[in-house]
Amino acid sequence: MGISPSSEVSVCTALQRRLSGMERDLAAIQAKLDSLEQEADSIGTEHPDDAALIRERITQIQQIWEQLKQMVSINILELRGL
To answer: For residue 3, is it left (φ>0), alpha (ψ between -120 and 50) or beta?
Structure first.
């Protein structure tokens, strides 16, 4: 026996709300990462001996962030295709 149409609509609506919240969260995280990158540049200028390590860490964070955004985008597209 399958899920009733009203249950499917409820589940879909709940998922859409959740993804909408995730999109807002991603925007807030992006702003924090932008701020972190500016701070890293400033610290790198103040401490040139550590600049390469700081830049390496920021690059790692950016790569992971891009992967996360891609995963969320795929989930959003899949949900909108329901």
So the answer is: beta
The pTM for the full model equals: 0.71
Report how many domains make up the chain: 1
Question: Digits of tens for pLDDT over the chain (82 positions)?
Answer: 566 777 878 887 888 888 888 888 989 999 999 999 999 999 999 999 999 999 999 999 999 999 998 988 887 777 777 5
State phi, psi for 46 to the nearest 5 degrees: -75, -30
Its domain, for residue 19, covers 5-80
Contact 27, 34 (CB under 8 A): no
Exposed e or buried b for every residue in 6-34, given b needs 16+ CB within 10 A?
eeeeeeeeeeeeebeeeeeebeeeeeeee
Percent composition of the chain: helix, strand, coil (DSSP 3-state, to 5): 90, 0, 10
